[in-house]
Amino acid sequence: MESLAHQDVINLLLKLATMLLLARIFAEVAQKLKQPAVVGEILAGIILGPTVLGMVGPEFFEFLFKSSPSANLALDGIVQMAVILLLFIAGLEVELHLVWSQGKSAVSISILGLVVPFIFGFLAPYYFPEFFGISEDKKLLFSLFMGTAMSITALPVVVRILMDMNLFKTKMGMVIVAGAMVNDLIGWLIFSVILSFMGKAGNFSLINTIGITLLFTVFMLTLGKGLLNKVLPWTNKKLAWPGGVLSLSMAFCFLAAAFTEWLGIHAIFGAFLFGVALGDSDHLSEKAKEIIHQFINNIFAPLFFVSIGLKINFFTNFDLGLVLVILAISFAGKIIGSGYGALRSGYSPKDALAVGFGMNARGAMEIILGLIALENGLIDEKLFVALVVMALVTSMSAAPLMKWALKKKPGEAD
Amino acid sequence: MYQKLALAIAFSPRMEALIAEARKLIQIFEGELILIHVGTKTPELETQLAEVLSRHCGDLHRIKTIWKEGKPAKTILKTCEEEGVDLLVLGALKKEGILTYYIGSVARKVIRKSKCSVLTLIEPKIETTHFSKVVINGTELEITPLVIARGLKFCQAERSSQVHILNEIKMYGFQMATAGEGTETEVANTRRKLVQDEIQYVQDILDKLDQTGLKINIKVTAGKWAVELVRYCESIEADLLIMGDEQGLTFIDRLFPHDLEGILEELPCNLLIVK
User: Fold this and answer.
1) Quick one: closest CA in A to B190, which residue?
2) Which of 110-169 (A) contact B at CB < 8 A?
3) CA-CA distances (angstroms) from residue A25 to A30, A153, B182, B184?
4) Contact list, A300 vs chain B (CB under 8 Å)
5) What is the mean pLDDT of each run of 10 residues along chain B (275 residues)?
6) Are A293 and B173 in contact (CB < 8 Å)?
7) Chain B residues with CB inside 8 Å of A283's CB?
8) In this predicted structure, what is the pLDDT of residue A209?
9) B254: distance to nearest CA of chain A, Å?
10) B39 touches chain A (CB under 8 A)
């Protein structure tokens, strides 16, 4: 096996240390300001990257991030793994049984909260391709992508907000969580189909890829889950705890990821589906879930979020018009869709608005989605920057907006 | 509490034990017993039943046997409705070879669609069962206050020695991971608060109820409640599990069996479903 040279090792370790340190500092600041840690971590990346450090201290930036191609490659490998693991825990968070127990209102809120933003996101570029700077032949794919990017709610951000507001256990909280879970699941399914359209390195024809993707999804949610239910009790009993379940779940997560990458629909999809199957199993203890979350959230997630800022100059690629349009589409789609869904399910207009604001939070998933689209040449850097800004603004505004919607006027009855 | 008790009989080897158990319950609740048999009425069966009844229910005046033909589940349900039955008693089935019990397809249909409460006995005995260790499902569901209220009444009538009420923290792992963004003290506080909230939920319900003569223990778990209920019943060797019913089981529930379905698939102990 090839190995890194002495200098490259030092460079790689310096990169990792700087990224983790700055991510931690900014995450702490964000939390002090009652903002999700993600917001701070992305800001840390923007500061470390070409946007700020590249301007202020170009020599240092060059030394840290440009001087060693081998170390960069190694870092890219680690970041790839981080994305796969992030999607794995995103899958783990989807608890199907919770969705079913919330009944019709959750389904109605999540379907409307998915379809309406999807339509908004789809129609805008489809009818105004020039504004988004896309060519006619890419129009359909691009519109599909925009639809999906507008429709995925950030579950971790939402849970945090609901917990802070003491709403997690209420009917409304559960409905929002269940709705966000369904959004995640369907959103990623749609995106996997888009990825197969792009088919950069697939081994199969388009129809075959889509067919195999659907088959794989059904397999993971039925037989795969059944298999896990058989294997997990054995692992829990016979192997070291939590070592056994941790290393085995990572191993199978990577296997599933390798499989979908081989199919031509990106590794993350396999990791996500495996996460859903594992998370829904009766035998994965909550303690094990907590451990998996902690080590991915605090080590791999910051590396990924910081790496975004390293890749792109957020200043030169900032297009105010584009950012505003994306923000308008994303706010309108989610709030109208989810809010209307809640209204239909019998919530008062105020509560429905609060549900809409809650579901409006986007985060990691939009950014990952955007990054893949960027790497595949589907979107340009300007649009990617607009998407990241959208994810940041929606995440940051969700809690204050929900509080505002739920605030009772003086004298109003409970 | 239960004034009209029905027992579905099938002339299996366990019929006598089931009748003895039903007789005991009638004694506790001072009610009326209705025996339902779906199938052809023949003189042999009648004699067989009369013999068993004379052994166990000789002194019982308020007893009647209904013979009906038709589809088993439908007929049992219809008869219960016509007679205004409060509690229907059924026997569970035993899996071949292994010592586990499950509810057959007819009984499952009856449990799902029944308008009255259903008691399923896994191992009816002629000398009758005493439900001394009882577990009640205290998971936050709409029906839970009713389940706990009825459950306590049942336990008082039965003179159960221990009552455990189980409630679970929803998405504990995810909530704790989210709370992990705080400091060590904040995380510890969140953990404590999550547990405290669940105990409080059950306590608030209990405060409104009469608990005379009962030793009640509130237990908080994390994970899927149905799975945790089964595990807990197994670990304390419970005699009876009392839970509510989820309304409106649909096609999706068959596709992704959960909660109640999981419990019906593998019974940890006797099961009372309160409606």
Assistant:
1) A163
2) 156, 159-160, 163, 168-169
3) 9, 26, 13, 17
4) none
5) 88 87 88 88 87 82 86 90 92 64 73 88 86 91 89 91 91 82 85 92 93 91 84 91 71 52 78 89
6) yes
7) 227
8) 76
9) 11
10) no
| Nearest CA-CA partner of B130 in B165, B90, B157 | B157
SS3 B66: strand
Q: For position B254, what pLDDT does the model report?
A: 47
Q: Which residue has the tokens 């200098």?
A: A7
Q: How far apart are CA B171 and CA B182, in angstroms?
A: 18
Query: pLDDT digit string (tens) for B70-97?
Result: 888 889 999 999 999 999 998 887 665 5
Are B224 and A96 inside 8 Å of each other by CB?
Answer: no
A287: nearest CB among B171, B173, B182: B173
Taking an 8 Å cut-off on Cβ atoms, the answer to whether A286 and B172 are in contact is yes
- pTM: predicted TM-score of the whole model, two decimal places: 0.82
ipTM value of the model?
0.76
Answer whether B135's CB lies under 8 Å from B164's CB. Answer: yes
Mean pLDDT of A302-307: 94
The 3-state DSSP class for residue B63 equals strand
Sheet holding B216-222, edge to edge: B63-68, B32-38, B4-9, B87-91, B117-121, B270-273, B240-243, B133-137, B162-169, B216-222
